Amino acid sequence: MQQRPAEIVDLKKDYVEGHALPRAFYTSREVYDHDIAAYWNQSWLWAGHVSQIPEPGDYFLFDYGPESIIVVRDRDGEIRAHLNVCRHRGSRVCVEQSGSARSFVCPYHAWTFDLSGQLRAGRAMGPDFDPGEYGLFPAQLRVFQGLIFVCASDSPPPIDAGLAKLAPLAEPFGLDNLKIAAKRTYPVPANWKLALENYMECYHCAPSHKEYARSHTLKAPEQMDRLMAPLQERSREIGLPVEEMDQTGPNAPAPGADVYYRRYPLYPGYETGSRDGHALAPTLGALTGLDGGATDIQVGPLNNFLVYADHLLGYRFIPRGLQETDIELVWMVRGDAEEGRDYSVEDLTWLWHVTSLDDERIIRHNQSGVNSHHFRPGPLADMEWGITGFYQGYLAMI
Amino acid sequence: MQQRPAEIVDLKKDYVEGHALPRAFYTSREVYDHDIAAYWNQSWLWAGHVSQIPEPGDYFLFDYGPESIIVVRDRDGEIRAHLNVCRHRGSRVCVEQSGSARSFVCPYHAWTFDLSGQLRAGRAMGPDFDPGEYGLFPAQLRVFQGLIFVCASDSPPPIDAGLAKLAPLAEPFGLDNLKIAAKRTYPVPANWKLALENYMECYHCAPSHKEYARSHTLKAPEQMDRLMAPLQERSREIGLPVEEMDQTGPNAPAPGADVYYRRYPLYPGYETGSRDGHALAPTLGALTGLDGGATDIQVGPLNNFLVYADHLLGYRFIPRGLQETDIELVWMVRGDAEEGRDYSVEDLTWLWHVTSLDDERIIRHNQSGVNSHHFRPGPLADMEWGITGFYQGYLAMI
Amino acid sequence: MQQRPAEIVDLKKDYVEGHALPRAFYTSREVYDHDIAAYWNQSWLWAGHVSQIPEPGDYFLFDYGPESIIVVRDRDGEIRAHLNVCRHRGSRVCVEQSGSARSFVCPYHAWTFDLSGQLRAGRAMGPDFDPGEYGLFPAQLRVFQGLIFVCASDSPPPIDAGLAKLAPLAEPFGLDNLKIAAKRTYPVPANWKLALENYMECYHCAPSHKEYARSHTLKAPEQMDRLMAPLQERSREIGLPVEEMDQTGPNAPAPGADVYYRRYPLYPGYETGSRDGHALAPTLGALTGLDGGATDIQVGPLNNFLVYADHLLGYRFIPRGLQETDIELVWMVRGDAEEGRDYSVEDLTWLWHVTSLDDERIIRHNQSGVNSHHFRPGPLADMEWGITGFYQGYLAMI
Q1: Whose CA is closest to A140, among A160, A120, A112?
Q2: Per the CB < 8 Å rule, is B373 touching C37?
């Protein structure tokens, strides 16, 4: 891991707990570069789902900032992750976003790596060259019920205990039996932290998200509390446990090892996160019906899932530059669901499409204001507790 | 005010009086950021005219660099200026460039500020929260005969004495009774200082501005001197005082408190700054006719006005990035003038439109050359005295 | 010459001979700025050919990074090079890419320079002003058999001895009797060093350049060696000497004074670098036929020429920004050749057009991977010897 620049050390002193971060965390190129090296490259990142690479040789790329990771199913059927950087002169070795390969041949000098990352041979590299030393750098990998997480660091946050606790809670959703139904990207001219913070609190939901606020109680804690008991009864009926689990921020076993699980009620009349309240797709996994609830799952601070009884959203905020971030949404349904017959992409994506358009707008205005030399981080509301938790881990890691 | 970066201190030593500034003043991102914080945010800026906000609730934004200032007429009819940055997490609270509002509701979490900038209440901020501490930061404000100036600093340059002296000189123009007839922006890929310097000297007028040079004597000091006495006679006849006032550069009471007033002759045949020499609009204020003169008024180093007997131009150079500047021109006529009947926008704007196109070109070429590592600031001509005056205040403030 | 930033000194320590340069050499803005000041502005650069400026007053600009150099034939018919920066306030004095001029009049304040760079007079600069002190800064100039090289430094690399040795080898090509037949630019989003390195090795030719590899043996050293003797016999027959000359890298008399000459065979059936193997244009200079060879000439590390018996390519890699480079190709044929009759631009440019499209792609992927924080420079192959030679001079100069 690279050294902390002096600037970062100074900046951390300016942070006041219970407030937003100081301006430079959102405006400094040095901080951004350090964010990638010291935070993103040390964090668990949700890369995709096993259904994307069913056969040996199938692969896809997961790119963020200047980084690119190859996720591939090798000849033995095992999933692996490699850094997409040739060990010779650094070219990307894989340039298609997804596909099927027998090996990865660097497009520059044809160094050829097998699916497990080993360099087969360095063409014309002379007799002293040992290909065994020049395999692709591996990324760490965890497959949790079909969800693929990667980490570019040799010493990733210790997430296993958290995942073990999460396992029985998530089990009924049958996450290993999903298919990706839709994927959309909403680019926003803002630092990734402003986009992530936006997702981490529902203090803004009431004023900013008309459609979401109509159906989801998260924006009104007291109403949520009131509707919780009846939801839990319905959840049990369809086969869902009702425990909660909050191992985030101060409760996380280590920085970056956050895991979170909570199901909360929709308003009466809403069986799922749909426009009309009705089901959008076949019920997931072992569930026997729709309970009108939504589960927030967080695996590491950067990876969010919102699980209804009939579909699932993956939400991530991918840095592309200092003030360029892609809000990326992935809609998933049960693996055997068929578009047209079992679900309509337009209906499925409606709610979070309109909600993400709202978010793009408010995050953009947030960055504009934060760019002002007159920005002073103000006090956070109780409903913004998640942000403070994120800062705690982030500041410990950078 | 933030600290002077070490780089700035070093750079100031490289400046040689009577020459242009060293290269880094036009090419360094650090200098640019410091320019905004230490110069623009400490300077008086011409934001607009009272006629833009006649009614309570009317507002407009004045944006520069990363900053945004709300200029609004409050419920009591008083004009106020606020920094457009929410005191919670920094979002812009006002996102329309102009309009009418009963309050400013932050688009993010709905913190609501009244027109005087007070936070009405922080929704769900808990019992210990004191809204009185989180009003919008105020900007300083001066309304001079209808022209609105703002300054984002708590300790703005002491401009009042200068404005008091300027008042009787400008009085006959009736500046408080104007309307904006046209507004145009000429983006130029250059640092704001190169754009401002261009306005500050007429050494370039003869070679660069064919149309302007045909009608205006400023480009030929000895011809100007010769035609000055007859002009002053005509000026007196139409009700204009003939004093001059130069409180700029070494004569300014303090850095940034520059004020300037001088009327100079057009060439015979030109009653005003028009293509054919004839009037373009009704005479301003109390004037009884056209004298064939043009007055340069400067309020602070950044705000320039060119006043003919029948119309007025406001000229400013707004930084948008290190080498991105908007040359912004505002044409104003008497408040009761009607387009079509009393003036034609095309005729009114002709001269300074073509002149600004020239300026965009020459400022662009200037920046290209200054970007060279081989640029060495050369000696300034006598006719470029205004630039040296600007440097004096600028270097004192940064 | 400006000081070495501390960052550069540190970075140089991270370089391991026999490997690529460390990441920051390709990603740091500070390094890029220093590259221009300490390397490009100190290096010999191929600007063009005498045929571009046959008459007194004819000129063209050669631009790179933030720099611009005027190459002009003065009234006495002598070729001169001037830095295109006004000595007053730094404007470009010449804004057309090529043309014919009697003098250079600065578009800003009309300072007027004669073709030899002398300032004629500084308009209105007062009695103490000495125009003799404010001529355009000269660039160093060498005309080698019609090829024009410039260097913005007062102490350019000592290239004369190398050029003297090169002279008899290049003589038969009649380089002073050429015309430019075509010129194409391939912008690539990569640092200039990655583009240059690509040209400096043929290790990538076999996997990356199908068309080139079919006709040129450079990609297969042992085949090249085998075909060398028959080529040399043919070369002698058409009037070409068969010596080689390698004064690059460790063999260069001084950093930046590299000169290289070697002719190597095409595959049987290829008389020249054409699609079908047949001639593309009249034989150059004194040559009596086509020998099926290609000569690599290098003058300074930045300037490459590939000389067939019937045409010539100039290849250069012009920095436009940190990760913006123009690959620029200039095709030249004998001075009396006529398009349509003696050559077809489409046929002439085919090979290196398709080859450059390949290069743009692979250099782009190289930069993508090098941008990763996980890039570690790997060992170079023997076939990449030229790159190590380039580094040696480069690291000595910056």
Answers
A1: A160
A2: yes
C-alpha C251/C-alpha C245 separation (Å) is 10
Q: What is the pLDDT of residues B155-209, one digit of tens each?
A: 999 999 999 999 999 999 999 999 999 999 999 999 999 999 999 999 999 999 9
With contacts defined as CB-CB under 8 Å, which chain B residues touch A207?
105, 107-110
Considering only CB atoms, which chain B residues are within 8 Å of A370?
89-90
- The span from the CA of B247 to the CA of B253, in Å, is 7
H helices of A106-220, in order, are: 160-170, 192-199, 205-208, 210-215
B1 falls in which pLDDT band (50, 70, 90)? very low
For residues C356 and C313, the answer to whether their CB atoms sit within 8 Å is no
Instruction: Please give the mean pLDDT across all residues of chain C.
Output: 97
Count CB pairs under 8 A between chains A and B: 90
Residue among C41, C84, C109 minimizing CB distance to B203 = C109
Interval A189-207: pLDDT, tens: 999 999 999 999 999 999 9
* Correct CATH for C47-142 of 3.40.50.720, 2.40.30.20, 2.102.10.10, 2.170.120.30: 2.102.10.10
List, by residue range, all CATH 2.102.10.10 domains of chain A: 45-142
Domain C157-397 superfamily per CATH: Naphthalene 1,2-dioxygenase Alpha Subunit; Chain A, domain 1 (3.90.380.10)
Residue in this structure with the two tokens 């901080």, named with its chain if needed: A31
Q: Do B108 and A382 touch (CB under 8 A)?
A: no
* CATH number assigned to the domain covering B45-142: 2.102.10.10
Chains that touch B (3 or more CB pairs under 8 A): A, C
List the single residue in B109, B126, B152 with the smallest CB-CB distance to A374.
Answer: B152
CA–CA gap between residue A348 and residue A296 (Å, rounded): 18
Of B366, B373, B383, the CB nearest to C108: B366
Q: Round to whole Å and give the CA distance between B300 and B253.
A: 11
Residues with Cβ within 8 Å of residue A330, at least 6 apart in sequence: A180, A182, A183, A313, A314, A315
The answer to which of B3-7, B198-202, C133-137, C245-249 has the lowest mean pLDDT is: B3-7
**pLDDT(B6) > 90:** no
pLDDT at B380: 97
Residue C68 touches partner B, C-beta closer than 8 Å: yes
Region A139-156 average pLDDT: 98
Average pLDDT, chain A: 97
pLDDT above 70 (res C1): no
The answer to whether B90 contacts A361, with C-beta atoms less than 8 Å apart, is: no
CB pairs under 8 A between A and C: 91
Query: Looking at the DSSP assignment, which residues form a beta bridge with residue A71?
Result: A60, A81
State the pLDDT confidence band at A2, using cuts at 50, 70 and 90: low
- In the stretch 323-382 of chain A, residues with CB closer than 8 A to chain B read 361-362, 365-366, 368-382
pLDDT in tens, A29-49: 999 999 999 999 999 999 999
Architecture of the CATH domain A159-397: Alpha-Beta Complex (3.90)
| Closest chain B residue to A367, measured at CA | B91
Euclidean distance between CA atoms A186 and A194, whole angstroms: 14
> Which residues 114-173 of B are in CB contact (within 8 Å) with A?
122-126, 129, 134, 137, 152
The answer, yes or no, to whether residue C292 has pLDDT greater than 70, is yes
Render B60-80 in DSSP notation, one character per residue: EEEEETTEEEEEEE-TTS-EE
Q: Which residues of C touch B371 (CB under 8 A)?
A: 66
Mean pLDDT on C233-238: 98
CB contact under 8 A, C90 and B375: yes
| Residue A5 pLDDT | 77
- Can you give the pLDDT at residue A112? 97
